[in-house]
Amino acid sequence: MRRRKKYDLYIVIFLLLVTVGYFMYSNISAGSKGYENYSEALKAYKENNYEQAYVEFGKVSYKSNLKEAALFRQARCATALDKKELAIKKYKKIIHTGSRTSIVPISEYNMAVLMYELKDKSAKRQFKRIIKKYPMSDYAIASNYYLGLITVEKLPSSPKHQAKAKNQAFTYFKNYIEKSPDGRFGINSINEIKKLEVPLTNYDNLLIAKTYYQNGEYEKAKEYLNKTTISESWADFARNEYKLGNKEGGRKYTEKGLKDFAQTTEPKDVYEVIDGYIATFPSRKEGISNLLSKNYKSTGADYIDYLNCTEVAPNEVKEACYRTIYEKYPNGQFSAETLYNIFLSKYLHKKYYDAQRIGLLHMKKFSNSKSSPAVTYFMGRIAYKLKHYESATNYYKQVLYKYPDSYYAFRANNNLYKDDGFLPFIELTEKPVIFPYKKSLDNNLVVNLALLKDYDLVEELCKNDKFIQSWIAYEKGNYTLSAVMARNAMEELNIKPPFEDLRWRLVYPLHYYKIADKLKGNNNPVILESIIKEESHFNPKAKSFAGAQGLMQLMPSTYSEVLKNNNIQADLDSAVKNIAAGSIYYSGLKRALLNRDLYAITAYNGGIGSVSGWFTKIKYSDTDEFVEQIPYPETKNYVKKVLRTYWMYGNIY
Known about the structure:
Layout lengths: L1 H45 L3 H9 L8 H14 L3 H13 L6 H15 L4 H12 L4 H16 L5 H21 L6 H11 L5 H13 L3 H8 L4 H14 L3 H14 L6 H12 L5 H10 L7 H12 L5 H11 L6 H14 L3 H14 L6 H14 L3 H14 L4 H10 L28 H7 L3 H7 L4 H10 L3 H13 L11 H5 L5 H6 L6 H12 L19 H10 L8 H19 L4 H10 L1 H10 L5 H6 L4 H20 L1
């Protein structure tokens, strides 16, 4: 009897294993088939063969994790074939799955739009449901526009009820332009508001003006700004005048606003207007000095004072200038940078104990400011000079840990490991730019769509993920936009990911590196690649205001001279020629400047004559003292950016 029971148990286990194996095989087979079908369907979809695409998407199994995307694509095919009722059915299937993926909200919105186009009475209820379920989404914002249209189209005949309905429609359109002035329905919303003929407040007129401004309609923006009070809209007046090319008008509004109304204006708006004002003068120094002479006391005065210390005040009075600002605005917008400059001045004048005291105050008061990496690094330098070697090491390690992607991490690493070569990376191992995430929150739907190159759907589902948007721009060949978007996205992260993170490759892709390596001559190809990135962001057609051209931003006269003197073939690709000429030019700078990359990088931006002069004008004993005392702010920042990029390339690749 026991043997029989044991035998029966073996049978049960065997059957269970067979069943599990069958289901695993079925799921794998279904998943695999889903990928094949989806890929074939997508190919037909991209060729605008919507009927075939619809059929192929329909073959994707319900067991496949691509089924939701396939249903969505079927709905899009049906819409393209003008079969809106069929499209709605497909969207409903997605919604009724109870899924929480990012494809559901857009399906609900698309379904509501189709309902509206079919004059379905339930469209209004659907749009309201979207606003309630996804209040912070773009779909909720756009739903306001459609609710406004629905309300306008069904105005009651009774004057009393009609007035109420018009006000409701106005509220919907106003909600849209308030939340999305640069949105696709912005101008349409304004046109609908005009038809309603409802009375507008100053704020309403300002909203309309801002929407026109965001859409490049500056004359129309001015028309509505003129219907507002200058106390509320002086900054908008000034910005709009600058866009219209009216320097005098822009200056007038800026000066009036800074004098009388800046105290009640958002600081960021004040600073933006100040920058616009300065840009109208032949030189920044002239613009800053002009503002300073007016002795403003309200919001913006701290920014003007800071710009004066940074860009106008002579070197011998800079520390006193910064100290005055810090005493006036100890908790102001620029107090962290101001205190850092006082700290740096003490360091450069070898007043190490004074600098140390100020540095500790900065680290305590401004623990995560723009200048924190520099302060932490120079605290390490001070500790080293005071022979507190263990403390110096701790500061350097802190820079590497907290600010790994900074110029000062590069310098800290140099000091920690005593790299006498200054530039330790001389070659890179290329790695491809791939989708920036290995997993996604929606059962890897987005990752799978990315692998299948369904870029349009990925872009639609991930509108708010700047790294994914950067990757899509990269895949579409827009390398400049991709690099800039990824850089901005990374700057928004408080904690930076490790260098192995795939997002870094988007920020620092290796475009043209093979060419730079081939044409490097005696140069470090990693430096050449870093210069290309910072000069042009990989745009071979880039052109500066000064006339510099191409990937390495060479002036036409320099470019022609290098091509002629080095017999560079005229029929070469423009990118290859530009890099070849840039490499030769850089090599010449390096030979003329003690064969040091630091000086060559500095001269590449500031000019060889300026750098040669700084050798005698600047008192320095090491790399840090030289870089921090470069007289041109643009050149100083350029050197730090190139070396930071060099450091990042070395760590990523």
